[in-house]
Design brief:
The chain has 255 residues and is an alpha/beta fold. The chain has ten helices and four strands. A four-stranded parallel β-sheet has the order 2-1-3-4, with helices on both faces.
């Protein structure tokens, strides 16, 4: 059930039918090589949310791209909002979702750069009393369960950024937005490793230092079949987590 497509009366019924569970897909607006749209993470996350909802009914929140992407703000088309603001906007959005009856707000992350920000956001929900719980879906990669996908992806089995998996996924979502004729220009982009001397030490610019074109992996191996298979497989896994969340009668009380 897509939030924006429901009438007001249908929305009230949807809250009841889903046990007040809303799935909030969060992406960002950033460069994805030379061949994928700026909205890749936003499109990918929303499409995944819709696939999950087809298996385990939830209310799917509209497109949301207010994520953390400061490391790419110099790239044309990037939307990098003030750090304090993205936290405030997300909290206000959750407050509004709750006011509308959804007391179980499930975040689905579609952008690697949101990872630390979203974990911190979840912890910040304990700062003051809330009448709702924010859950963050955690995708676990089980090689046995994903054996066929690993085989389909080959050496680029983790997909990388704007690589085989993301390119295949975008083909499955909307093939018209994938410019495969531009992939050859980038080819197999190397890992520049300009901060590898730091070892395991983290800095905010590490990823960009290694991948200044915002492409990694092997997008030239992408195909729609891989995209459909990977997305359906992931949707089933995430739907299982949603079912557990809908059955959860413990967390809010403890919180």
């Amino acid at each position: 059930m897509l939030w924006e497509e429901l009438t007001s009366e249908e929305f009230a019924k949807a809250v009841e039918d889903t046990g007040g569970t809303c799935l909030l897909p969060i992406g960002c607006m950033e460069k994805h090589g030379q061949h994928l749209p700026l909205g890749m993470d936003m499109y990918g996350c929303r499409d995944m949310a819709k696939r999950v909802a087809d298996i385990e009914p939830v209310i799917v929140f509209p497109y949301y791209f207010f994520g953390q992407i400061n490391e790419a703000k110099h790239c044309p088309g990037t939307i990098a909002m003030d750090t304090d603001l993205i936290l405030k906007v997300l909290e206000d959005m959750c407050n509004e979702i709750s006011r509308n009856g959804c007391k179980k707000i499930v975040i689905l992350n579609g952008h690697g750069g949101n990872k630390h920000f979203l974990h911190y956001f979840c912890q910040s929900m304990l700062y003051k009393k809330k009448d709702y719980v924010v859950y963050l879906l955690q995708k676990e990669f089980d090689e046995e369960k994903f054996e066929k996908l690993v085989e389909m992806l080959g050496t680029d089995w983790m997909g990388a950024h704007a690589g085989n998996l993301e390119t295949s996924s975008m083909m499955a979502i909307d093939e018209s937005l994938v410019k495969m004729d531009r992939v050859e220009e980038a080819g197999l982009v190397p890992n520049y490793g300009r901060t590898k001397h730091l070892g395991s030490v983290y800095t905010a610019i590490c990823w960009y230092a290694s991948h200044p074109t915002h492409q990694a992996g092997e997008p030239f191996k992408a195909n729609k079949e891989t995209g459909e298979y990977s997305r359906d497989l992931s949707a089933k896994e995430l739907a299982e987590q949603i079912k557990v969340i809908k059955d959860d009668m413990v967390t809010l009380g403890i919180q």
